[in-house]
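Mods, move this if it's the wrong board.
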Amino acid sequence: MKVLLVGSGGREHAIAWKLSLSPRLKRLWIAPGNPGTAQTGENIPISAADVPALVDFSQHNQVELVVIGPEASLAVGLSDALASAGMAVFGPTQAAARIETSKAFAKQFMVRHGIPTARFATFKQFEPALKYLDGLDYPVVIKASGLAAGKGVLLPGTKEEVRQALHAMLVDGQFGQAGEEVIIEERLEGEEVSLLAFTDGKTIALMPPAQDHKRLLDGDRGPNTGGMGAYAPAPICPPEMQTRLVNIVLQPAVDGLCAEGMTFAGVLYAGLILTRNGPQVLEFNARFGDPETQVILPLLETDLLEICNACAHGQLDQVSVHWKNGSAVCVVMASAGYPDKFSLPAPLQGLDDLPHGSLVFQAGTGIKDGQLLATGGRVLGVTCTGEELPKAVSTAYAALERIHFQGAQYRKDIAHKALHRRVSLYQAAGVNIDAGNRAVELMRAAVSSTYDGRVLAGIGAFGGLFDANELKQMRSPVLVASTDGVGTKVKLAASLGRYRGIGLDIVNHCINDILVQGARPLFFLDYFASSRLQPEVVAEIVSGISEACRQAGCVLIGGETAEMPGVYLEGEFDLAGTIVGCLEREHMLPRQDIHPGDRLVGIQSTGPHTNGYSLLRKIFDPAEMNYPRPEWGGSLADALLVPHRSYLGLLLPLIEASPSIIKGLAHITGGGFIENIPRMLPEGMGASIHKGFWPVPPLFQLVQQRGQIGDEEIYRVFNMGIGMVAAVSAQDVPALQSVIPEKTWLMGEVVEDARHKVKMV
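Not the wrong board. Structure tokens:
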């Protein structure tokens, strides 16, 4: 095949080197290339942005495949022009490339397609941006929306620095023209990882995860650069996480672009940050990364030309992409003054005397009078491979010591994060025993605060011991047990960093589940599982569990905390619990004397409780969670995370003192009215619920409107403001309402119904 590669940097040198190894390659041109690419193909003096000249060259020389390296070429529509001229192109269309060339488009695209990313807002004017900042209570990143050669991200540390960054972009036009769009984005904490994939617009072939080093100086200090080095594969992103990230990030992005009519054939690059609340996308790139390419391609076993050609023709599913074992590391040598001002050209020496297996990919180099010169900012990248990462690192730095040019600078700590992870084998598998022990110590006081004389052994024992002597005082004791979970409400809580409430949720949910049978709680056990234990998070959740147990006179007798990397995605967790209670047999609910004509009385909820959150997270944009809503007395997040209400103190005294009044109780949880009310009704009976007999809270009205949800579905999913329904005889309604110290609603009645249905009328 005759191939044209567009670009002139270290990335393109690495691509040219790999393409040159293909047995299918007949001829390789690089436009404009650099002295390094001239060793693998033929450089031609055409700018990477000169679309007409590149199209004309390709037609004249019967080029069979064009591989586009830099983002600037994609931004000016080179891929579209080549395709219109009948060329096969490895590189997305101009429209699809907006996922990189416009950060504003990319952020809005991620929101549309449910791809996890940080909270953000976009601005073109200085004053509105400042006003928006006044309402934020979290640190931010300022990003130029357009291309900025890897340097359009500013990390201000103070409000004054934020103001200066905005002024530089919106007023001074630091990365373009004044008034060009900027992104104000929540500043996230965590390690970053680059995850790239080949794609033909449908199929994805994943590359090994890499970790770039953006800051200029050791220890991740100094200004952001285009990249001072990288290594792959990055152990912080193991295979299980890679699979998960394909499912929640890369495949949704490829599918979303396709659904919006944008062809993407090339490399899709997700820049990710692994936060305590799970992975978040910082940015997408529409091409190979630089310097990630210099460590990924040396690990590629499959013919790169075959892959690129398959992507260009929509046939990636016909290619099996394989990778070598081992690691690769690249260290970038830059000129003095980079990234601000570059030093004058300087002779470059030592490239002919390097350790075996070393690769040098040139970027900012030139030739004058036969002498190789360092001419640009990032001059070259030294890449070495090894069976183990430490070997690759030591070889790369040994090679660097032999390369010289005046003013050369490079980081001495590339791959330090991976090299300094000295842990036990068990911890290397992702399990931190010390973190588990610390979590136990942090939660010990909260758990112990629920104990009374009935606890014979609790936290730290193999099993909780509970003195059952009090059951001897009962005439005919019955034990009741229930197990449940918080569901996907935990994902919302994690994304917002608000954990205590879900501890209250799990206990109160379980209490209500046994209350509907007439029981009071005796003891509770919790189960918390995550990818990686964060002791402070566990302790905060358990403090909520303990608080709910104390309020209910229930003891938290024990539980289990499990760390399971590979089962849960980084930052994700699950929470469940088991409760045991007791009651006198004569107080068991529901009673068998429920008859048609009995009334249904509703008691208000405090919100969605623990149901419907998978749907809620799809309906609401994460970016609007913390917007103030004065009419609600808080934010949307406040409304969605208000704890599940316990009805124990409200109803149990009535059940025990006047057992004849309440015939049955229905806890409105998953399944809403439609599924839960029949649980208390005898066979052959149903219920008629009058929708207008109680006020539906504004939150549920918004949910129905925003989600365009029909009445049948919304009353099947949500509690609509009613968390508990009591069945009583018609004459006992006044007695029930008189002893409940809050507003209740007569909302329906029991009817004959052979199909055991609930009808919403």
